[in-house]
Each structure stands twice: as structure tokens, then as C-alpha cells.
Design brief:
The chain is an alpha/beta fold. The protein contains ten helices and twelve strands. It has helices at about 10-15, 25-30, 45-60, 80-90, 90-95, 120-135, 145-155, 200-205, 240-250, 280-295; strands at about 5, 20-25, 35-40, 65-70, 90, 100-105, 135-140, 160-170, 185-195, 210-215, 220-225, 230. The chain has a ten-stranded mixed beta sheet with strand order 5-4-3-6-7-12-11-10-8-9. The chain has a two-stranded parallel ribbon with strand order 1-2. It is globular. The two termini are about 20 Å apart. The model has no long low-confidence stretch (mean pLDDT about 90).
Length: about 300
């Protein structure tokens, strides 16, 4: 929660210069509060695992969130029990007239597929179009981020010769961004992907800005300058054993994968991984939901997506 202080307290300027959020009495008096409505389009086959990972990160805030889960109607999940989907998931036709403060579009294991060849591509495009007028702020994650940049800005994706897998060091390019409040100057984050985009293709679009990158893993976080769309290519929500399970799965498939970088102590898969990204993960999701959703979304939920207040 923000610190609330008297209007002209001298410490305000100092704290704001340190990228610490301070709410004056005047703003606090005029601020209305209601539960935030967040929609998660879960494209992962292991839906329950992904649900748990995202809810864990969204839960560490005093804000009250109401979360709905969305599935595609044009493709039926083969890895999640139908009873689970029927009870906890909705489809676009059921929510298309609703408004949401936040939307998260997850990744999907679709390496090697052209976007137009994905079974539910048209449906995802329809949801992304809908979000422009019905969602205050959208958070695209991994494949969902690459797909979003391709659909909205025509930025192509390149298939990599070798999978990016491991824990990589990242540098923050926009240190005064509210997204990085509480972050260290560098942070560690997991990656697991076979595709990438060129930094130069992103920089061609004046409405986009790069927030963080890695010397080894490339561009990692991008957003629109009006802060209505975020594109995150790393997996800060990953559990401690997620990369381990992916590595063992690929071994069983006979793919002969490389050991994930900077993950197992001494690069020994028999040793338990050491988590170095949990605090950054918690800050990222907490900062996103607080500064880019809660602090700027309209009080009237039916206005979400129709009026977007800028927050750099």
C-alpha cells in the first residue's frame, strides 16, 4: 500500500526521486476503492500449475482481486480435466460484454508454429482486439507476448538455433519506472523458449519502449508508452522446479537438451536448484497490479478500457 502523508512534507520530494510511491492526503481523500477484476487467458496445457503460479504472485498485495479464468472455445485442452474447465473457466462469448481492470495472456508451447496456423489464432486476435476497449491494462507473457507484438505491430519472431533455457542476469533500462520499484540494479529471471524478436524491430515503433534486457537472453520486457500493454518474455512466475521438470521431460523425449544455465549448483542436475528470482517476481507482479492497474483504472468498471490514465 502507498504511504499517505501531509501534502507539503519535505520528505515527499526525496522519496519520489528515489522512485518510492507517496500518496498525499489530497489524493487519498479523492480515491475510491473497489475490488479489482482480473481476467487470465490461460493457454498453457498444464493449466492448474499455471493458475497456481500466477495466483501466487498476484496474492501478495493488500488489494482485493476478483480473478476469472478464460479458455479458448476453438480448442479444447487435452491435459486438463473437463470438469475443472467447466467449473472454473469461462469462454469469450460469456465475458465479451464485461470490462476488466487487468488481463493476463499466458504463454503456450507453440514453438515452430506460424501464428496463423495455431488452431485458436483467430480467437486470440479477437480477444486482443476486445481488450483495447474492455480492459484497462494487458500483461502478455512469453508466447503471449510474442504473439501480441506480432499481431498488434507486425513484429516477426525468429526461431533460435538453440533453446534459451536457464536463469539469466538482466539490467533495467528504465530505472524510474514504477514497474521496478524495489528492484536491485540487476535481477535474475528464468527463460525457456526457442524463439525471439530483434531489438531493432521493436525500436522501429515509437509507441513501444524497452524496459529490461539481458546480454545473454536479449530483450526481456517491453511496454507501450501509454502503459496499457506489457510484453514480458521471461518467466518470473516459475516455481523452483519448473525448469528441472522441463529438462527431465526433454531428456525423456530423447531431445538431449543442454543443462539450463545458472540453475543447478555446479551444473549438476542431481542437485536441487537454488532460487534467485523469487523476490524480483513478487515485485514485478505487485508493482504491475498496483501502479498500472489499481492506481489508474477508472472507479466505474464499465469504463475500464475506455479511459486510460498514463503512468510511466
Amino acid at each position: 500500500m502507498p504511504i499517505k502523508v501531509k501534502q507539503n512534507l519535505p520528505a515527499i520530494d526525496v522519496l519520489e526521486n528515489e522512485n518510492i510511491f507517496v500518496m498525499t492526503e489530497k489524493r487519498a481523500i479523492t480515491q475510491d476503492i473497489r475490488p479489482l477484476k482480473v481476467l487470465i487467458l490461460n493457454l498453457m496445457p498444464t493449466k492448474i500449475v499455471t493458475e497456481t503460479q500466477l495466483l501466487r504472485k498476484l496474492s501478495n498485495t493488500p488489494l482485493q482481486l476478483e480473478v476469472d479464468f478464460l479458455q479458448t472455445a476453438t480448442y479444447e485442452s487435452q491435459h486438463t480435466d473437463k470438469s475443472h474447465l467447466d467449473e472454473f473457466y469461462t469462454t469469450f462469448e460469456e465475458i465479451k460484454d464485461k470490462h476488466y481492470d487487468g488481463l493476463i495472456i499466458t504463454g503456450a508451447p507453440l514453438e515452430g508454429f506460424k501464428y496463423e496456423d495455431v488452431d485458436y489464432w483467430d480467437e486470440i486476435c479477437k480477444i486482443m482486439d476486445w481488450s483495447k476497449t474492455h480492459v484497462h491494462c494487458t500483461y502478455h507473457l512469453c508466447w503471449g507476448a510474442y504473439a501480441g507484438l506480432y499481431y498488434r505491430y507486425g513484429i516477426p519472431t525468429q526461431i533460435l538455433k538453440e533453446k534459451v533455457s536457464g536463469i539469466y542476469k538482466h539490467k533495467i533500462l528504465k530505472k524510474n519506472s514504477p514497474l521496478f520499484r524495489g528492484f536491485d540494479d540487476v535481477f535474475m529471471a528464468p527463460h525457456s523458449r526457442l524463439f525471439d524478436v530483434n531489438k531493432e524491430d521493436i525500436l522501429k515503433h515509437e509507441e513501444l519502449e524497452i524496459l529490461a534486457e539481458s546480454d545473454e537472453a536479449g530483450v526481456t520486457m517491453v511496454k507501450t508508452k501509454d502503459s496499457s500493454e506489457f510484453y514480458v518474455f521471461c518467466h518470473l512466475e516459475y516455481d523452483s522446479n519448473t525448469l528441472k521438470l522441463e529438462y527431465e521431460r526433454d531428456l525423456e523425449k530423447g531431445i538431449n537438451p543442454k543443462i539450463p544455465c545458472n540453475y543447478f549448483p555446479d551444473d549438476d542436475p542431481s542437485k536441487n536448484p537454488v532460487v534467485t528470482w523469487r523476490s524480483a517476481a513478487q515485485l514485478l507482479y505487485t508493482n504491475w497490479i498496483n501502479y498500472y492497474v489499481y492506481q489508474t483504472t477508472p472507479y466505474d468498471i464499465n469504463e475500464a478500457g475506455t479511459s486510460k490514465e498514463k503512468n510511466n
